[in-house]
Specification:
Length: 383
Amino acid sequence: MNHTMPKHIGDYNKNQILSILRERGPTTRVELSRMLEISPAAISRSTSRLLNKGIIKEGEAEYSDMGRKPVPVELCSDFCYVLGADIVGGVLKIALADLMGKIVKYSEEPLARNKGAHAVMGQLLTALRNIIAETGIASEKIWVVTIGTPGIFNSDTGKSQHTFFMDKWDDIDIRSWVYEALSIETLIENDVNLDVIGESWKGVGRDYENTLYVKLGQGLAARIVLQGKLLRGEHNMAGEIGYMLPGTTAGETQNYEHLLSNTPVSRKYRDSAGECTVNTISDLCALADRGDTAAREVIHHMLDQFAVVLLNSATVLDPQVIILGGDACCFGEKEIALLKQRIEQHFPLVQNIIPSKLNKQACLYGAIKMGLDRVEERIAAIW
């Protein structure tokens, strides 16, 4: 955004006021003026308009031996709401959050992937309608719904591309389906983009400006936050490290996603240990922790290959931290120490490798954050 023009400066400052109140809670006008380096008069004008619109409210006045302290202002959390949905994996997760980002209603249910793409969309719409009805919140107070989905979202077509989520999923115009059914502004975003947004907002990424988030499980992908901003690339595909090749020629038939995701890693264990119910890397980690030698060998071999991917990514991006998501959340101290050892043999600067604490909720928190950011833009336009 160009902040040199008066309107752009004004819109930017409005968004900053809203963001500060959302993240910090009650804040005085004096503090806002100091934090944003805006004159007290300009802050007073802005907060007066916000008060008149019912977007913020004044808190209780505090008193001390020095007299009455400045009155803080805070967001009216029920001014509007956002919906977030996560359609990744085998579970459909929905959350309704208020203007402060607090989740006021959450639901989850098994995802009907075996019934096909249209059935999944029908299930999504029903779940969204149900959570709205259960809260009793008027639909006009729900300003944005953000859907996290596998694949690369094409804003021109409204569809996800390059996804192996399920048959015909690439043919679904998700944005139009949801908007036409609910009449709520609808945002669609790649699930791993939302993961790193969620981690940077509410997870272990909060203290870092340069983050490499790597999700291992059904597939292999990464997303990057540089200088506090999500790196998207020309085609919204920055971080698709699953396409990396393990060999030295472009004629390789298997990329790292075909080698390191749940299906091939589990198959390797089944081939060595016989028939079993292991289907994920998390299952293998649990077996290895219980002393299963075959599981431990498969995990160590997988970690050797995974370390190469992390090393190559780190040399390009130079992150402060690598956050492990998906099934990689199950990695304990031994697994992480092995990854660090392999990486530091060639690139000694990466010291922080941390499992996600949000784990399977990261996408949902990212969806809420993206919805709230859009709400701030809309609010800034009305005052």
